[in-house]
């Protein structure tokens, strides 16, 4: 568990972190400004997510999901949200629908790999892409986004994390699994 001083140092560092360069690189790299709404929905469900689903047709299930065909409704809602609590409720509705519509079983009758965590990552990626698209007029939405933890979001935090936390280091190339490992590590320290 972090000491009070370690937490304070990390929070202070994050508050001072200028993310404009990171965001601008992201927008340029992924060509967000030129994407149509349908392209954004398709783009958000990347190959790293698809690899998680053995014996499933993730692309097929994803495009059959009811929100996949409603990117215009997502944009309209995002452009009207004025509070974090409303944003959180909206993305939770979308997450729950993804898990429910995905179904419980894969192609061979085994339990699906879709769960709340994977669904939330997918929804967070969709929201990130939508928020930085040309379709958003509500620029306050940036303040409500949740971080989809992956190498793109963890890497810029690596030096901050490693300088504030002495007994558990972030790897050179952190991936989404690092967050699970960190949570398990923190739980073990609390015991």
Model regions low in confidence, pLDDT < 50 over at least 5 residues: 187-191
Q: What structural class do you assign from the helix and strand content?
A: mainly alpha
Q: How many domains make up the coordinates?
A: 2
Envelope shape = globular
Cα-atom radius of gyration: 18 Å
In whole angstroms, the N-to-C terminal distance is: 10 Å
Largest sheet: none
Range of strand content: under 5%
| Helicity range | 55-70%
Average pLDDT, to the nearest integer?
79
Q: List SSEs in N-to-C order.
A: HHHHHHHHHHH
Could you tell me the number of beta strands? Answer: 0
> How many distinct helices?
11
Notes on the protein architecture:
This protein has helices at 4-16, 20-29, 37-44, 47-50, 58-64, 71-78, 84-102, 116-131, 151-154, 158-164, 176-190. The termini are close together. α1 (4-16) packs antiparallel against α10 (158-164), α3 (37-44) runs antiparallel to α8 and α7 (84-102) crosses α8 (116-131). Mean pLDDT is 79; it is low at 187-191. It contains 11 helices and no strands.
Fold blueprint:
Layout: H1 4-16, H2 20-29, H3 37-44, H4 47-50, H5 58-64, H6 71-78, H7 84-102, H8 116-131, H9 151-154, H10 158-164, H11 176-190
Helix pairs in contact: 1-10, 3-8, 7-8
Question: Briefly, what is this?
Answer:
With 191 residues, this protein is mainly alpha-helical. The chain is built from 11 helices and no strands.
Features:
mainly alpha, 2 domains
